[in-house]
Specification:
The structure is a single chain. With 389 residues, the chain is an all-alpha fold. The protein contains 17 helices and no strands. It has helices at residues 6-21, 27-33, 38-66, 68-88, 93-121, 128-156, 163-176, 204-215, 217-233, 235-238, 242-260, 264-270, 275-292, 296-324, 330-341, 347-356, 361-384. Helix 8 runs antiparallel to helix 14 (296-324), helix 9 runs antiparallel to helix 11 (242-260) and helix 9 runs antiparallel to helix 14. The longest helix is centred in the first third of the chain and has 29 residues, at 38-66. It starts with 5 loop residues before the first helix and ends in a 5-residue tail after the last helix.
Protein backbone atom coordinates (compact mmCIF):
# COMPACT_ATOMS: atom_id res chain seq x y z
CA UNK A 1 0.00 0.00 0.00
CA UNK A 2 1.52 3.33 -1.05
CA UNK A 3 1.91 6.19 1.38
CA UNK A 4 -0.65 8.55 -0.15
CA UNK A 5 -3.32 5.95 -0.91
CA UNK A 6 -5.74 7.61 1.51
CA UNK A 7 -5.97 10.45 -1.01
CA UNK A 8 -7.78 8.13 -3.40
CA UNK A 9 -10.74 7.96 -1.00
CA UNK A 10 -10.61 11.59 0.16
CA UNK A 11 -12.13 13.31 -2.93
CA UNK A 12 -15.34 11.28 -2.69
CA UNK A 13 -15.70 12.09 1.01
CA UNK A 14 -14.97 15.75 0.28
CA UNK A 15 -17.63 15.93 -2.42
CA UNK A 16 -20.24 14.23 -0.23
CA UNK A 17 -19.57 16.87 2.45
CA UNK A 18 -19.75 19.56 -0.24
CA UNK A 19 -23.18 18.28 -1.25
CA UNK A 20 -24.44 18.53 2.31
CA UNK A 21 -23.36 22.12 2.95
CA UNK A 22 -23.68 23.93 -0.38
CA UNK A 23 -27.36 24.37 0.47
CA UNK A 24 -26.68 26.53 3.57
CA UNK A 25 -25.88 29.88 1.88
CA UNK A 26 -28.81 29.38 -0.52
CA UNK A 27 -31.47 29.59 2.20
CA UNK A 28 -31.84 33.37 1.88
CA UNK A 29 -31.94 32.97 -1.91
CA UNK A 30 -34.86 30.56 -1.76
CA UNK A 31 -36.80 32.90 0.50
CA UNK A 32 -36.33 35.70 -2.02
CA UNK A 33 -36.72 33.79 -5.32
CA UNK A 34 -39.32 31.16 -4.45
CA UNK A 35 -41.06 32.98 -1.59
CA UNK A 36 -40.51 30.29 1.03
CA UNK A 37 -41.37 31.22 4.60
CA UNK A 38 -38.99 30.83 7.53
CA UNK A 39 -41.04 27.82 8.64
CA UNK A 40 -40.56 26.14 5.26
CA UNK A 41 -36.84 26.87 5.27
CA UNK A 42 -36.58 25.31 8.74
CA UNK A 43 -38.50 22.33 7.35
CA UNK A 44 -35.83 21.81 4.67
CA UNK A 45 -33.21 21.73 7.38
CA UNK A 46 -35.31 19.34 9.49
CA UNK A 47 -35.54 16.85 6.60
CA UNK A 48 -31.76 17.00 6.21
CA UNK A 49 -31.39 16.00 9.87
CA UNK A 50 -34.14 13.38 9.39
CA UNK A 51 -31.99 11.70 6.75
CA UNK A 52 -28.73 12.30 8.56
CA UNK A 53 -29.08 10.95 12.09
CA UNK A 54 -30.69 7.55 11.34
CA UNK A 55 -28.19 7.04 8.52
CA UNK A 56 -25.32 7.62 10.95
CA UNK A 57 -26.55 4.69 13.02
CA UNK A 58 -27.37 2.38 10.08
CA UNK A 59 -24.45 2.96 7.69
CA UNK A 60 -21.84 2.36 10.40
CA UNK A 61 -22.75 -1.31 10.91
CA UNK A 62 -23.11 -1.76 7.14
CA UNK A 63 -19.61 -0.38 6.61
CA UNK A 64 -18.20 -2.64 9.33
CA UNK A 65 -19.81 -5.74 7.77
CA UNK A 66 -19.79 -4.98 4.04
CA UNK A 67 -16.74 -2.75 3.65
CA UNK A 68 -16.02 0.96 3.36
CA UNK A 69 -15.82 1.32 -0.41
CA UNK A 70 -19.38 0.32 -1.26
CA UNK A 71 -20.82 2.70 1.35
CA UNK A 72 -18.68 5.62 0.12
CA UNK A 73 -19.64 4.91 -3.50
CA UNK A 74 -23.28 4.87 -2.44
CA UNK A 75 -22.82 8.13 -0.55
CA UNK A 76 -21.34 9.82 -3.60
CA UNK A 77 -24.20 8.59 -5.78
CA UNK A 78 -26.84 9.74 -3.31
CA UNK A 79 -25.17 13.16 -3.13
CA UNK A 80 -25.53 13.51 -6.91
CA UNK A 81 -29.17 12.37 -6.71
CA UNK A 82 -29.83 14.93 -3.98
CA UNK A 83 -28.38 17.73 -6.11
CA UNK A 84 -30.46 16.66 -9.11
CA UNK A 85 -33.65 16.73 -7.03
CA UNK A 86 -32.86 20.13 -5.51
CA UNK A 87 -31.90 21.59 -8.88
CA UNK A 88 -35.05 20.36 -10.63
CA UNK A 89 -37.50 20.83 -7.76
CA UNK A 90 -36.49 24.12 -6.17
CA UNK A 91 -40.01 25.54 -6.60
CA UNK A 92 -41.67 22.67 -4.68
CA UNK A 93 -41.65 22.23 -0.92
CA UNK A 94 -42.11 18.47 -1.36
CA UNK A 95 -39.11 18.02 -3.66
CA UNK A 96 -36.95 20.35 -1.58
CA UNK A 97 -37.67 18.22 1.47
CA UNK A 98 -37.01 15.04 -0.52
CA UNK A 99 -33.73 16.38 -1.85
CA UNK A 100 -32.52 17.43 1.58
CA UNK A 101 -33.46 14.01 3.00
CA UNK A 102 -31.36 12.28 0.34
CA UNK A 103 -28.47 14.68 0.97
CA UNK A 104 -28.63 13.88 4.68
CA UNK A 105 -28.26 10.15 4.04
CA UNK A 106 -25.37 10.84 1.65
CA UNK A 107 -23.43 12.99 4.11
CA UNK A 108 -23.96 10.55 6.97
CA UNK A 109 -22.73 7.57 4.95
CA UNK A 110 -19.64 9.47 3.81
CA UNK A 111 -18.83 10.74 7.29
CA UNK A 112 -19.13 7.31 8.89
CA UNK A 113 -17.55 5.05 6.27
CA UNK A 114 -15.30 7.69 4.72
CA UNK A 115 -13.60 8.86 7.91
CA UNK A 116 -13.12 5.23 9.00
CA UNK A 117 -11.68 4.39 5.58
CA UNK A 118 -9.26 7.34 5.56
CA UNK A 119 -8.12 6.40 9.07
CA UNK A 120 -7.45 2.80 8.04
CA UNK A 121 -5.72 3.76 4.80
CA UNK A 122 -3.41 6.00 6.87
CA UNK A 123 -2.38 3.42 9.47
CA UNK A 124 0.94 2.56 7.77
CA UNK A 125 2.28 6.14 7.63
CA UNK A 126 0.61 8.24 10.34
CA UNK A 127 0.04 8.30 14.08
CA UNK A 128 -3.51 8.31 15.52
CA UNK A 129 -3.89 12.13 15.72
CA UNK A 130 -2.74 12.48 12.10
CA UNK A 131 -5.23 9.84 10.94
CA UNK A 132 -8.09 11.63 12.64
CA UNK A 133 -6.85 14.97 11.31
CA UNK A 134 -6.80 13.74 7.72
CA UNK A 135 -10.40 12.58 8.03
CA UNK A 136 -11.65 15.74 9.72
CA UNK A 137 -9.76 18.03 7.32
CA UNK A 138 -11.31 16.26 4.34
CA UNK A 139 -14.79 16.83 5.77
CA UNK A 140 -14.05 20.43 6.73
CA UNK A 141 -12.69 21.20 3.27
CA UNK A 142 -15.83 19.78 1.70
CA UNK A 143 -18.15 21.72 3.98
CA UNK A 144 -16.20 24.94 3.42
CA UNK A 145 -15.79 24.67 -0.34
CA UNK A 146 -19.43 23.69 -0.80
CA UNK A 147 -20.69 26.71 1.12
CA UNK A 148 -18.14 29.09 -0.40
CA UNK A 149 -18.63 28.16 -4.04
CA UNK A 150 -22.43 27.94 -3.79
CA UNK A 151 -22.62 31.30 -2.01
CA UNK A 152 -20.52 33.06 -4.65
CA UNK A 153 -22.54 31.52 -7.47
CA UNK A 154 -25.83 32.42 -5.78
CA UNK A 155 -24.81 36.03 -5.17
CA UNK A 156 -23.19 36.97 -8.47
CA UNK A 157 -23.79 34.35 -11.19
CA UNK A 158 -26.92 33.74 -13.33
CA UNK A 159 -29.13 30.69 -12.67
CA UNK A 160 -28.34 30.63 -8.92
CA UNK A 161 -30.81 27.81 -8.22
CA UNK A 162 -29.19 25.56 -10.85
CA UNK A 163 -25.48 26.26 -11.26
CA UNK A 164 -24.36 25.41 -7.67
CA UNK A 165 -25.85 21.93 -8.04
CA UNK A 166 -24.49 21.44 -11.56
CA UNK A 167 -20.97 22.19 -10.30
CA UNK A 168 -21.37 19.66 -7.49
CA UNK A 169 -22.62 16.96 -9.87
CA UNK A 170 -19.70 17.48 -12.26
CA UNK A 171 -17.06 17.45 -9.52
CA UNK A 172 -18.61 14.35 -7.94
CA UNK A 173 -18.14 12.49 -11.21
CA UNK A 174 -14.47 13.45 -11.16
CA UNK A 175 -14.13 12.36 -7.51
CA UNK A 176 -15.48 8.90 -8.35
CA UNK A 177 -12.47 8.05 -10.55
CA UNK A 178 -9.81 7.66 -7.78
CA UNK A 179 -12.06 5.28 -5.86
CA UNK A 180 -11.13 2.50 -8.30
CA UNK A 181 -7.57 2.44 -6.90
CA UNK A 182 -8.46 2.79 -3.21
CA UNK A 183 -8.14 -0.64 -1.52
CA UNK A 184 -10.86 -1.99 0.72
CA UNK A 185 -9.82 -2.08 4.39
CA UNK A 186 -12.81 -3.91 5.87
CA UNK A 187 -13.65 -6.92 3.67
CA UNK A 188 -17.19 -8.24 3.54
CA UNK A 189 -17.99 -10.56 6.43
CA UNK A 190 -20.77 -12.94 7.31
CA UNK A 191 -20.70 -11.99 10.97
CA UNK A 192 -23.28 -13.60 13.21
CA UNK A 193 -22.61 -11.15 16.02
CA UNK A 194 -24.77 -8.19 17.01
CA UNK A 195 -25.88 -5.96 14.13
CA UNK A 196 -24.47 -2.86 15.85
CA UNK A 197 -21.15 -3.75 17.46
CA UNK A 198 -20.33 -1.09 20.05
CA UNK A 199 -18.08 -3.17 22.25
CA UNK A 200 -15.32 -1.09 23.83
CA UNK A 201 -12.28 -1.96 25.94
CA UNK A 202 -12.73 -2.06 29.71
CA UNK A 203 -13.56 1.43 30.95
CA UNK A 204 -14.24 2.62 27.40
CA UNK A 205 -17.82 3.67 27.96
CA UNK A 206 -16.84 5.64 31.05
CA UNK A 207 -14.27 7.50 28.95
CA UNK A 208 -16.83 8.04 26.17
CA UNK A 209 -19.45 9.39 28.58
CA UNK A 210 -17.00 11.57 30.49
CA UNK A 211 -15.02 13.09 27.61
CA UNK A 212 -16.70 12.57 24.22
CA UNK A 213 -20.33 13.04 25.21
CA UNK A 214 -20.03 16.53 26.81
CA UNK A 215 -17.90 17.77 23.90
CA UNK A 216 -19.51 16.22 20.82
CA UNK A 217 -22.68 18.36 20.49
CA UNK A 218 -20.58 21.53 20.39
CA UNK A 219 -18.57 20.39 17.36
CA UNK A 220 -21.25 21.53 14.91
CA UNK A 221 -22.93 23.92 17.32
CA UNK A 222 -19.91 26.18 16.72
CA UNK A 223 -20.39 26.60 12.93
CA UNK A 224 -24.18 26.71 13.39
CA UNK A 225 -23.83 29.69 15.71
CA UNK A 226 -21.31 31.30 13.35
CA UNK A 227 -23.13 31.16 10.03
CA UNK A 228 -26.77 30.58 10.96
CA UNK A 229 -27.33 32.69 14.08
CA UNK A 230 -24.62 35.26 13.29
CA UNK A 231 -26.04 36.49 9.94
CA UNK A 232 -29.54 36.72 11.39
CA UNK A 233 -28.33 39.10 14.10
CA UNK A 234 -27.03 41.62 11.54
CA UNK A 235 -29.42 40.97 8.63
CA UNK A 236 -30.73 44.54 8.79
CA UNK A 237 -27.18 45.89 8.32
CA UNK A 238 -26.05 43.71 5.42
CA UNK A 239 -28.95 44.48 3.07
CA UNK A 240 -28.61 43.09 -0.45
CA UNK A 241 -25.32 41.41 0.50
CA UNK A 242 -26.93 39.07 3.02
CA UNK A 243 -26.10 35.96 1.02
CA UNK A 244 -22.52 37.10 0.49
CA UNK A 245 -22.10 37.92 4.18
CA UNK A 246 -23.52 34.56 5.27
CA UNK A 247 -21.16 32.87 2.81
CA UNK A 248 -18.23 34.89 4.16
CA UNK A 249 -19.01 33.77 7.71
CA UNK A 250 -19.24 30.13 6.62
CA UNK A 251 -15.90 30.34 4.81
CA UNK A 252 -14.22 32.18 7.70
CA UNK A 253 -15.43 29.58 10.19
CA UNK A 254 -14.50 26.52 8.16
CA UNK A 255 -11.19 27.84 6.82
CA UNK A 256 -10.16 28.74 10.37
CA UNK A 257 -11.34 25.31 11.53
CA UNK A 258 -9.27 23.62 8.83
CA UNK A 259 -6.27 25.82 9.54
CA UNK A 260 -6.15 25.01 13.25
CA UNK A 261 -6.49 21.24 12.88
CA UNK A 262 -2.82 20.52 11.98
CA UNK A 263 -1.82 22.22 15.24
CA UNK A 264 -4.14 20.24 17.50
CA UNK A 265 -1.51 17.56 18.31
CA UNK A 266 0.94 20.29 19.36
CA UNK A 267 -1.80 21.90 21.44
CA UNK A 268 -2.49 18.50 23.02
CA UNK A 269 1.15 18.19 24.07
CA UNK A 270 1.22 21.69 25.54
CA UNK A 271 -2.06 21.21 27.43
CA UNK A 272 -1.34 17.57 28.33
CA UNK A 273 -4.37 16.21 26.52
CA UNK A 274 -6.78 18.98 27.52
CA UNK A 275 -7.13 20.49 24.03
CA UNK A 276 -10.85 19.64 23.98
CA UNK A 277 -11.35 21.71 27.12
CA UNK A 278 -9.56 24.61 25.45
CA UNK A 279 -11.79 24.29 22.39
CA UNK A 280 -14.93 24.55 24.51
CA UNK A 281 -13.56 27.56 26.38
CA UNK A 282 -12.91 29.33 23.06
CA UNK A 283 -16.46 28.48 21.99
CA UNK A 284 -17.83 30.03 25.18
CA UNK A 285 -15.81 33.20 24.54
CA UNK A 286 -17.08 33.38 20.95
CA UNK A 287 -20.65 33.05 22.17
CA UNK A 288 -20.14 35.91 24.63
CA UNK A 289 -18.75 38.04 21.79
CA UNK A 290 -21.78 37.24 19.66
CA UNK A 291 -24.03 38.27 22.55
CA UNK A 292 -22.29 41.56 23.28
CA UNK A 293 -21.33 42.88 19.84
CA UNK A 294 -24.06 42.14 17.27
CA UNK A 295 -22.35 44.17 14.50
CA UNK A 296 -20.91 42.73 11.27
CA UNK A 297 -17.31 43.14 12.43
CA UNK A 298 -18.03 41.54 15.80
CA UNK A 299 -19.93 38.67 14.19
CA UNK A 300 -16.96 38.12 11.86
CA UNK A 301 -14.55 38.02 14.80
CA UNK A 302 -16.83 35.56 16.57
CA UNK A 303 -16.84 33.38 13.44
CA UNK A 304 -13.05 33.12 13.62
CA UNK A 305 -13.25 31.99 17.25
CA UNK A 306 -16.05 29.55 16.42
CA UNK A 307 -13.79 28.15 13.68
CA UNK A 308 -10.99 27.56 16.19
CA UNK A 309 -13.43 25.83 18.56
CA UNK A 310 -14.81 23.67 15.73
CA UNK A 311 -11.38 22.64 14.48
CA UNK A 312 -10.08 21.70 17.93
CA UNK A 313 -13.16 19.82 19.11
CA UNK A 314 -13.77 17.84 15.90
CA UNK A 315 -10.22 16.44 15.93
CA UNK A 316 -10.21 15.87 19.70
CA UNK A 317 -13.46 13.91 19.62
CA UNK A 318 -12.50 11.84 16.59
CA UNK A 319 -9.13 10.92 18.11
CA UNK A 320 -10.91 9.76 21.28
CA UNK A 321 -13.44 7.66 19.35
CA UNK A 322 -10.87 6.05 17.08
CA UNK A 323 -8.69 5.21 20.09
CA UNK A 324 -11.60 3.61 21.94
CA UNK A 325 -13.11 1.59 19.06
CA UNK A 326 -12.11 -1.93 18.07
CA UNK A 327 -11.62 -2.70 14.35
CA UNK A 328 -15.06 -4.36 14.22
CA UNK A 329 -16.80 -1.42 15.89
CA UNK A 330 -14.93 1.53 14.36
CA UNK A 331 -17.55 2.64 11.82
CA UNK A 332 -20.49 1.94 14.14
CA UNK A 333 -19.01 3.94 17.03
CA UNK A 334 -17.98 6.68 14.62
CA UNK A 335 -21.61 6.82 13.47
CA UNK A 336 -22.76 7.26 17.06
CA UNK A 337 -20.21 10.03 17.51
CA UNK A 338 -21.27 11.92 14.36
CA UNK A 339 -24.96 11.60 15.29
CA UNK A 340 -24.23 13.31 18.62
CA UNK A 341 -22.15 16.05 16.98
CA UNK A 342 -24.94 16.90 14.56
CA UNK A 343 -27.31 17.57 17.44
CA UNK A 344 -25.52 20.91 17.62
CA UNK A 345 -27.06 21.96 14.33
CA UNK A 346 -30.45 22.02 16.06
CA UNK A 347 -29.25 24.85 18.28
CA UNK A 348 -30.30 27.74 15.98
CA UNK A 349 -33.83 26.33 15.75
CA UNK A 350 -34.00 25.93 19.54
CA UNK A 351 -32.74 29.47 20.10
CA UNK A 352 -35.20 30.87 17.55
CA UNK A 353 -38.09 29.08 19.29
CA UNK A 354 -37.14 30.39 22.72
CA UNK A 355 -36.50 33.86 21.30
CA UNK A 356 -40.01 33.89 19.88
CA UNK A 357 -41.36 33.40 23.40
CA UNK A 358 -39.72 36.59 24.68
CA UNK A 359 -36.04 36.37 25.75
CA UNK A 360 -33.62 38.30 23.53
CA UNK A 361 -30.59 36.80 21.84
CA UNK A 362 -28.04 38.53 24.13
CA UNK A 363 -29.53 36.77 27.17
CA UNK A 364 -29.91 33.44 25.37
CA UNK A 365 -26.33 33.50 24.09
CA UNK A 366 -24.99 34.44 27.52
CA UNK A 367 -26.79 31.48 29.08
CA UNK A 368 -25.43 29.30 26.29
CA UNK A 369 -21.89 30.45 27.06
CA UNK A 370 -22.35 29.41 30.69
CA UNK A 371 -23.58 25.96 29.62
CA UNK A 372 -20.59 25.58 27.30
CA UNK A 373 -18.22 26.48 30.13
CA UNK A 374 -19.93 23.85 32.26
CA UNK A 375 -19.33 21.23 29.56
CA UNK A 376 -15.66 22.26 29.44
CA UNK A 377 -15.43 21.62 33.17
CA UNK A 378 -17.12 18.22 32.71
CA UNK A 379 -14.60 17.23 30.03
CA UNK A 380 -11.73 18.30 32.30
CA UNK A 381 -13.08 16.03 35.04
CA UNK A 382 -13.54 13.16 32.57
CA UNK A 383 -9.94 13.50 31.36
CA UNK A 384 -8.60 13.24 34.90
CA UNK A 385 -10.37 9.90 35.31
CA UNK A 386 -8.83 8.31 32.21
CA UNK A 387 -5.72 8.07 30.12
CA UNK A 388 -4.62 10.67 27.61
CA UNK A 389 -4.78 9.79 23.90
Amino acid sequence: MTKAIWRAAAPAVLMAAWGGNHFSPLLLLYRRVDGYSQVEVNLFFAFYILGLVPAFLVTGPIADRRGRRSVVVGALGLGVAGSVILMAGHASVFWMCAGRLVCGVSVAAAMVAGTSWIKELSEHDADPPARARRASLTLTAGFGLGAGVAGVLAQWVPAPTILPYAVHIALSAVAAVPLFRAPETAPRTASTGPWIDLRLPRGGWRRFAGVVLPMAPWVFAAPALAFVVGPSLVADRTGDLRIAFATLLAVLTLVTGAGIQPYVPRLARVLRGRQGVAGLVVLALATVLLATDPAPLGVGAAALLFGVAYGVTIVSGLVEVQALATPSSLAALTGVYWSITYAGFALPVILAGIHGAGPGYPLLLTVLAVITAGCAAAVAVGLRRGRFV
